[in-house]
């Protein structure tokens, strides 16, 4: 009865309460998602939408600020990240003025970098200049001023030098577009130079480092408090009413899960461990 009711509620009654059509919403998500078949394990496409290359700047860029040059390619996103000037490497910020003969590292979508007319100048081979520390890190959105805003707006404000690879909400990867609204607790997989990813991570929330360790204290405390809470008994006449230990643990699981979503600095549980908890819990139930 419990399983049948949940299936009926989610597929029939809930969409009516929300005033949406599951079929129409599914088609919209399918249209937003990338097309094509999912590749087999260990196989990936050779095409890269974003690329980083080194160029000798054209004469027209002499005396112009980095921010002005990047903005001239709008609505395309272009980042000038580092330059070689008089043999020395220089980190570029929006207010840095370019000089004739500078070699710069430009990051953008491939169709922008290889556009007609060589908009970035002559491409050069400079391994040391291109040897940037790149990172792809998970950032959890925790700041209230960032939540409930579209990705496009956040990119204009904080997104210089980084690109969004993946958006995960409630444990599921979802397709995204410039007008996708970011919620508190969303996990964003950001890629770019390490300093840029770290900067954006601190601006919008918390950078979650890859780790295989489980916060056992967090898990154990939740189970302990849940057991104590479930042991409380309310008597109505001769009838005792209690959540029991399992019900108390369930309530504390919801509470601690909420704490983890708004304060992800503690309580980390790796995905494999969560999978074991889910599988064993469902089998025992």
Q: Strand count, sense and closure of the main sheet?
A: 5 strands, antiparallel
- What's the average pLDDT? 86
Gyration radius, rounded:
25 Å
Silhouette: elongated
> Helicity level, as a percent range?
25-40%
Helical/strand content category: alpha+beta
Helical element count? 10
Instruction: Work out the strand percent.
Output: 15-25%
Total beta-strand segments: 14
Order of helices and strands: HHEHEEEHEHEEHEEEEHEHEEHH
Unreliable stretches covering 5 or more consecutive residues: none
Oligomer designation: single chain
**Strands side by side in the biggest sheet:** 3-2-4-1-5
End-to-end separation: 14 Å
Describe the structure in brief.
The protein has 285 residues and is α+β, with helices and mostly antiparallel strands. The chain is 39% helix and 24% strand. Strand 8 and strand 9 form a beta hairpin.
Can you describe this structure?
With 285 residues, the protein is α+β, with helices and mostly antiparallel strands. The chain has 10 helices and 14 strands. The chain has a 5-stranded antiparallel beta sheet with strand order 3-2-4-1-5. Helix 8 crosses helix 9. The model has no long low-confidence stretch (mean pLDDT 86).
